[in-house]
Design goal:
By secondary structure, this protein is α+β, with helices and mostly antiparallel strands. It has 5 helices and 13 strands. Strands 1, 2, 3, 4, 5, 6, 7, 8, 9, 10, 11, 12 and 13 form a 13-stranded antiparallel beta sheet that branches. A hairpin with a 2-residue loop joins β1 and β2. The longest helix has 13 residues. It is globular.
Length: 285
């Protein structure tokens, strides 16, 4: 298996300290704090360990404090309720004796019901698109060291945007973008694992969508961004080791915050997940 992807799987395999309490490590991916997708994926994985025969259909989370990459994170799971069809869980992530994140998640026993879905955008497939990791030397020479480290870091996923981002000379654009994403190697047949990995990767491109109409430059460090909350809904089973289209949009930005959303489709057009996030966006003078 690709070593970076294998390391991510190990990162999600939390240490069970005692019943309902788990401990996880972190990885430095070049962001100022623990990557929010990592905490989201670990928290969902911790909650899933306490549920039998049911799969997550929704989660709602808040990021409370910056995570410390050098310190372990303890996840405490509260088994709020196990009903006839649904199970509710609450998860608190703790570092240095303080909560840094909390999440509510709901799990459901599989059942059939009415179905409809939004149409998949009519855009080209991932074949032939450049990966986000293919950043030219000319652009890398113009970005600051932290951004250079973030852009050139090896990732466990292939990320192929329909429109390549311009970090050095951004233009004002409509707050919409389309990105194909796929894990770099074959993964086990475990729906809960694929959901945790989806939660992880859903934080890759989301909040940046809210900056597109404002020609924000990430070169000089003049923008401060941080996730405030994150919600996800899982509609059908899926595999993150197959191409998934993330269709992003941002309906609003105000008050130093931006709201971004995404619908996630398989390559054959099935809508498998939806997500939304509000985040802090501050422009520094």
């Amino acid at each position: 298996m690709d070593p970076v992807l294998a390391d991510l799987l190990q990162l999600l395999e939390l240490e069970r300290i005692e019943q309902n309490i788990y401990r996880g490590e972190s990885r430095d991916i070049g962001t100022p704090q623990v990557f929010g997708g990592q905490v989201l994926g670990q928290a969902l994985h911790a909650a899933a360990q306490t549920v039998d025969g049911r799969i997550c259909h929704s989660l709602h989370a808040y990021f409370l404090r910056r995570g410390d990459v050098e310190a372990p994170i303890v996840y405490e799971v509260d088994r709020a309720r196990d009903g006839g069809s649904f199970s509710s869980r609450r998860v608190v992530a703790i570092q240095h004796g303080q909560p840094i994140f909390n999440m509510a998640a709901s799990f459901q026993a599989p059942e059939q019901g009415i179905e409809h879905q939004a149409a998949m955008p009519d855009i080209p497939g991932p074949e032939g698109l450049a990966d986000r990791s293919e950043v030219g030397e000319a652009m890398l020479a113009q970005v600051h060291e932290k951004m250079r480290r973030y852009l050139t870091r090896k990732r466990p996923f292939m990320v192929r945007p329909l429109r390549a981002p311009d970090y050095t000379n951004p233009k004002k654009l409509e707050p919409v973008k389309h990105v194909w994403i796929k894990a770099k190697d074959k993964l086990p047949d475990n729906p809960a694992l694929h959901q945790a990995l989806m939660a992880y990767v859903s934080d890759y491109e989301l909040l940046g969508t809210a900056t597109l109409p404002h020609a924000v430059s990430f070169v000089d460090g003049s923008v401060q961004m941080a996730s405030l909350d994150h919600a996800m809904w899982f509609h059908h089973e899926f595999r993150v080791d197959e191409w998934l289209l993330f269709a992003f949009d941002s309906p609003s930005a105000s008050g130093g915050r931006g709201l971004a959303r995404a619908t996630v489709f398989t390559q054959d057009g099935k809508l498998v997940a939806s997500t939304a996030q509000e985040g802090l966006i501050r422009l520094r003078s």
